[in-house]
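Internal tracking record. Fields below are filled automatically when a chain is submitted to the structure queue. Please do not edit lines marked as system-generated. If the sequence contains nonstandard residues, flag them in the REMARKS field before resubmitting.
Queue: standard
Priority: normal
Entity type: single polypeptide chain
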Amino acid sequence: MKALDSSVLAKLERTNSATLSTLLLKRGLRNTAIRGVRPLSALDKPMIGPAVTVRYIPAREDIDGSTYSSDPSNYQRRAIDTIPDGHVLVFDCRALAEVAGIGAMLARRLVYRNAAGMVLDGGVRDTADIASLGFPTYCLGPAAPANLVAHHASDMNQPIACGGVAVYPGDIIFGDSEAVIVIPREYVDEIADEAVAMEEQEAFLKIEIESGRSTLGVYPPNEETLARYAQWRKARRAES
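SYSTEM-GENERATED OUTPUT FOLLOWS
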């Protein structure tokens, strides 16, 4: 698994899910926000990293007994024990909010592995404990029943669905207080550059609107507004 370039990571840390969603929409990608998931706790910076994927299928009693959780063939455990530094673990839980896809013990292993976070379109148990770790965790909510009640980890690092969005191994996962966005790896460098530029332009447009200008011609900006933006940007550069 290829790590995310540090310069790209730094640019993405300056943006937000709304901006990224807009830039992906401009490329024709409409279905990029994972549905229903929310962070367990407030984050001081976005969760960003390449995806490691795990697919859950319905559990079956003759396979998913009490010993399966410690079986070396268990893809959930294999993914947790091998996730590379700075990656995000993404689970396909089939949108089952009432059953946990993971709990606090395994979350601690992800912290030790220096994972960037995890996303599940399902429930999580031990939520207060996981929240206390400060480990970025996005899920549908708390759920006490263990994953073996309903889930069997059928494979890892294959394309999955999470919250109605296709996630391929290595896709860049971005999560903030508003949403989790899936960015195809081939777009991430150019989108990071555009996101920084878009954030700067929108900072100027907010000033324009707050000064009393109509949104017409300002958002989106017409040629006159873009000319004022160029002057503002030039002056800002000169001050710095």
